[in-house]
């Protein structure tokens, strides 16, 4: 699906939810949707300044907070970066595989992992309020490069 199609889908969802999809939020959405992999807020700010010259860090962080709340992006906690979510129309479990060599981030949606994690939390009397499951390693592409050298 193209960035434009994703933007139109997000606009429809915002209308249905009764939330404002301001021009700045649209710009940040478009920038992150067009980015391959995770991107930092400051990288987004540099790109946003081309569209909104007076943009400051709080501008980007407010837009990212909105996009997170709507489920349009995920935060990659260990990288302090953000990842566009193509599955934003539905609530879904999420686990991230992060390549330490190339920075590629693979988003998984495994209900079994999510259920096992929640079950373990319950067994320990722990109430999860926020969850981020991230694993660092090497992607198939980078692992292949290392075996050919």
Automatic annotation (TrEMBL):
It is found in: Cytoplasm. Pfam families: FUR. Residues 99-119 form the C2H2-type domain. The keyword Transcription applies. InterPro entries: FUR, Fur_C, WH-like_DNA-bd_sf, WH_DNA-bd_sf, Znf_C2H2_type. CDD domains: Fur_like (cd07153). Keywords: Cytoplasm, DNA-binding, Iron, Metal-binding, Repressor, Transcription, Transcription regulation, Zinc. Its main location: cytoplasm. Belongs to the Fur family. Homodimer. This is Ferric uptake regulation protein. The lineage of its organism: Bacteria, Pseudomonadati, Pseudomonadota, Gammaproteobacteria, Aeromonadales. The gene is zur.
